[in-house]
Design goal:
Layout: H1 5-9, E1 22-23, H2 31-48, E2 62-67, H3 73-84, E3 88-93, H4 105-114, E4 119-124, H5 129-136, E5 141-147, H6 153-167, E6 174-178, H7 185-197, E7 200-204, H8 212-216, E8 230-231, H9 235-239, E9 244-247, H10 263-270, H11 274-277, E10 285-287, H12 300-303, H13 310-329
Helix pairs in contact: 2-13, 3-13, 4-5, 6-7, 6-13
Bound molecules: phosphoric acid mono(formamide)ester.
Length: 336
C-alpha cells in the first residue's frame, strides 16, 4: 500500500497527451488531469439534466464490463455512462462465463480483447488483478472497478468531485474516514486523491481495522508520501471540526473472525450518529461509498438527513464515469 515520494514525482500519464491507457488507481493522477476530469464531469451533468440523455461521442466503441464480485452502483453507473455516450456496452460476470469451466483470468481478458473491446471494466476479488491484465493487453484499455482490498479509483473520483462541489476547495480541510480502513479499497484510493488535492486526512477506526503501517506510525518515516495522514482512534475527537466525514462499510466478507468483539460494541464506538455529527463543522457533509449497513457504521437518521450527500455520490458517479470513458476513448471529441 505504501508508495515512495520518488514514485509520486515520476512522469504521470495524461488524457490529452494520449499517454493514459488505463485507470488502475489514483497514484498516477496529476492535478491537471483531475481538473480536466472534473470540468468534463460538469459538462456531463449538463447532459444528464437534459430530457434526452444521449450523445454520439462514443458511437462505434465497445465497452465490456466483467464483474467477478457483486455490485449495484459501479456496474449500473458504468453501463448507464457508456450507453448515454453512444457506446455499445456488454456486461458479463464470472458466473455463467467460461471462468466457471476453469479459464484463467488472462485468457478471459485476451478473449474479450480479441472480440474488439475498446475498454474492459473489471471488478475482481484479487488485489492487483486489473494491473496484471493491463500489462498483458495491447489494444483494450482497462478500468479498475474495484480489486480486492487494494483500490477503487472511480469511486474515489466520485467522492472527490462530491467533496469539491460542496466544499469548494479541499486544501487543509479536515476529511475524516471512519471504519474498516484495513479492508477498504475506497479508503486507499481516496488517500491518493485527497493528498493530491491537499486535504488534511484523518483515519479513524478500531486498532484491529487500521493498517499496521498507520498504527505503528511507519508512514511518518523517511519523508514518506503518506506522512501527513493522521490517525485518531477516538471518533469524537476525530470528527471535531471536520468538513467531510466518510463512513465505511464493515467488510465482513473480507474479515476472518476476531476483528471485533461485537457489532454492538463497534457501533457504539464508531457509528456516525446525529449527536456525533454536531461536533463537525456546521456545514459538514456526510458521505458513504455504499452499500451501507444502516445501524452498524451509520445511523439511519444521518444517512438520510440534511447533511448526507450519499445519493449525490451515486449521481456524481454516473457523470464521473461518463467523463472517464470519454477522455479515455475520444479525448478531443465534442460532447454535444
Ligand atoms: N461503492 C461501490 O462500489 O458500490 P457497489 O459495490 O454497489 O458497486
Amino acid at each position: 500500500m505504501l508508495h515512495s515520494q520518488k514514485e509520486m514525482s515520476e512522469n504521470k500519464p495524461g488524457f490529452l497527451t494520449g499517454t493514459r491507457n488505463h485507470v488502475l488507481d489514483l497514484d498516477d493522477f496529476s492535478l491537471e488531469e483531475l481538473d480536466l476530469l472534473f470540468t468534463t464531469t460538469d459538462e456531463m451533468h449538463t447532459v444528464l439534466n437534459q430530457d434526452k440523455k444521449k450523445l454520439a461521442v462514443l458511437q462505434g466503441k465497445i465497452i465490456v464490463t466483467l464483474f467477478c464480485e457483486p455490485s449495484t452502483r459501479t456496474r449500473l453507473s458504468f453501463e448507464e455512462a457508456g450507453k448515454i455516450l453512444g457506446a455499445d456496452v456488454i456486461n458479463i460476470s464470472s458466473q455463467g462465463s467460461s471462468v466457471e469451466k476453469g479459464e484463467s483470468l488472462l485468457n478471459t481478458m485476451l478473449t474479450i480483447q480479441a472480440t474488439g473491446a475498446d475498454i474492459i471494466i473489471i471488478r475482481h476479488p484479487h488485489s492487483g488483478a486489473p494491473h496484471f491484465i493491463a500489462r498483458h493487453l495491447n489494444s483494450s484499455k482497462v478500468i479498475n472497478a474495484g480489486d480486492g482490498l487494494h483500490a477503487h479509483p472511480t469511486q474515489a473520483l466520485s467522492d472527490l468531485y462530491t467533496m469539491k462541489s460542496h466544499l469548494g476547495h479541499l486544501a487543509n480541510r479536515k476529511v475524516v474516514i471512519v471504519g474498516d480502513i484495513l479492508h477498504s479499497r475506497v479508503a486507499r484510493s481516496n488517500l491518493w486523491g485527497l493528498l493530491l488535492i491537499g486535504a488534511r486526512v484523518v483515519l479513524c477506526g478500531p486498532p484491529t481495522l487500521l493498517p499496521k503501517e498507520f498504527l505503528r506510525g511507519d508512514h511518518r518515516k523517511n519523508g514518506h508520501h503518506l506522512a501527513k495522514i493522521e490517525v485518531e482512534m477516538n471518533l469524537d475527537k476525530a470528527i471535531e471540526g471536520a468538513a467531510a466525514i466518510m463512513a465505511l462499510r464493515l467488510q465482513t466478507e473480507r474479515q476472518d473472525d476476531g476483528f471485533l468483539p461485537s457489532l454492538r460494541e463497534y457501533s457504539k464506538m464508531y457509528a456516525i450518529t446525529p449527536e456525533r455529527l454536531k461536533t463537525a463543522q456546521t456545514r459538514a457533509i456526510l458521505m458513504h461509498p455504499g452499500p451501507m449497513n444502516e445501524g452498524v457504521e451509520i445511523s439511519p437518521d444521518v444517512a438520510h438527513g440534511p447533511q448526507s450527500v450519499i445519493e449525490e455520490q451515486v449521481n456524481n458517479s454516473v457523470a464521473i464515469r461518463m467523463s472517464l470513458l470519454k477522455l479515455l476513448l475520444n479525448p478531443t471529441g465534442k460532447i454535444q
